[in-house]
Amino acid sequence: MRKSTSIILIAMLSFVSLNLLSQSALDQKNGFKDFTLGDKFYKWSSNLSYFNTLQSGIKVYKYNGTCCRSVYGYGIPEIRIGFDSNDELTAIWLTTEMFQKGYEIDKKYTEYGATKDFEKIRDNIESQFGQADGVHGGDGDSDLTLYWMGTKVWMNLVYEYLGVRNGDRCSILIAKIVPIKTKDGF
After folding, report:
1. 38-77: pLDDT as tens digits
2. 136 vs 9, 45, 74, 142, 163, CA distance in Å?
3. pTM of the full structure
4. Across the strands, what pairs with 158?
5. Given this model, what pLDDT does residue 8 score?
6. How many C-beta neighbours within 10 Å does residue 115 have?
7. What would the DSSP string read from start to end of the chain?
């Protein structure tokens, strides 16, 4: 009985240790390539065009520069970055190239679940940051989302199936964890 309890305890501690390591790695990375969460707006302003403002007040810009245009060997045609009211970089959105191009481009219908490209990106992220802390979607949903939580930074990876005629791709969001301020204390 003590031996099995010890084995279970060691397994639990190993899982907790690995999770803490992934949290630490995500917090230490604190961004994507040259983009560091907390960067001031002026650092990137010459390569930005306004996109929109979120309900939270974060101003989102499309990045037009040449930096940081690939992730694990896949091209990133679109990068958007968001700045808070203090003009600090608070979120980074990356959209990969299309994996299956779609019917209009290559005259092939998009296969649902042909996710080897998604799995390659996921495997690389997991080798760097550990296993995902959670999963949402899958089993027939058009999107599958995995997320990683640090203490200061969170990240999600989304597989986007865009329909039989439109292809598929991934998007990645890396953002600062911002405490929610409530008026009623709950």
Report:
1. 999 999 999 999 999 999 999 999 999 999 999 999 999 9
2. 28, 34, 23, 11, 19
3. 0.82
4. 145, 171
5. 43
6. 18
7. -HHHHHHHHHHHHHHHHHHHHHHHHHHHH-EETTEETT-BHHHHGGGEEEEEE-TTS-EEEEE-SSTT-EETTEE--EEEEEE-TTSBEEEEEEEPPPSB--HHHHS-PPPTT--HHHHHHHHHHHHHH-S-SEEEE-TT-SEEEEEEE-SSEEEEEEEEE--TTT-EEEEEEEEE--PPP-SS--
CA distance 171 to 146: 11
Cα 40 from Cα 9, distance rounded (Å): 45
Question: Are 31 and 174 spatial neighbours (Cβ–Cβ below 8 Å)?
Answer: yes
